[in-house]
Amino acid sequence: MKMRSDYTCPLEMTHDIIRGKWKPLILWQLSKGECSPSALKKSIQGISQKMLIQHLNELLDCGVIEKTSHEGYPLKTSYFLTERGKKIFEAVSIMQSVGIEMMLEDNREDFLKDKGLL
Fold first, then answer.
1. For the chain, how far is it from start to end, CA to CA, in angstroms?
2. Could you give the CA distance from residue 43 to residue 58 in angstroms, rounded to a whole number?
3. Which residue among 33, 45, 63, 79 is buried most deeply as judged by most CB within 10 Å?
4. Which pTM was predicted?
5. Is there a contact between 15 and 92 (Cβ–Cβ < 8 Å)?
């Protein structure tokens, strides 16, 4: 995903960065700390390797995450949130809170308990 040069409002830019099924989940996992691609794949149920790499590259391009490569064999890489990424994560965190409130209103406490969110 390339960042556009024209936006009608700042919200569009934020939306472009985090839109999609997987990016908020990737950001959520990275908010817990630096993580390898294999650890991310294990923690995000249903994401394919191809989609994970694609979204990581898009988040890298937007400056939301950075990648470090560790020497040795096999080569190890890990990803972490940048300062920009930490700001974007604040929005994702608010979205999570709203989702929890809505699930409570819809009597989905069991789901939230199973996920460790209550």
1. 35
2. 19
3. 79
4. 0.85
5. no
B/e letters for 54-78, b = 16+ CB within 10 Å, e = fewer, are: ebbebbeebebbeeeeeeeeeeeeb
45-98 pLDDT per residue, tens = 999 999 999 999 999 999 999 999 988 888 899 999 999 999 999 999 999 999
In whole angstroms, what is the distance from residue 53 CA to residue 66 CA?
13
- Look at residues 7, 14, 8, 1 and name the one whose alpha carbon lies nearest to residue 94: 14
| Angstrom distance (rounded) from CA 79 to CA 84 | 14
- For the record, the structure tokens of 45 come out as 């149920």
Residue 52 CB coordination number (10 Å)? 18
As a dihedral over the C-alpha atoms of residue 50, residue 81, residue 27, residue 107, rounded to 10 degrees, the angle is 160
CB 52 within 8 A of CB 67: no
* Domains of the chain as residue ranges with CATH: 10-114 (1.10.10.10)
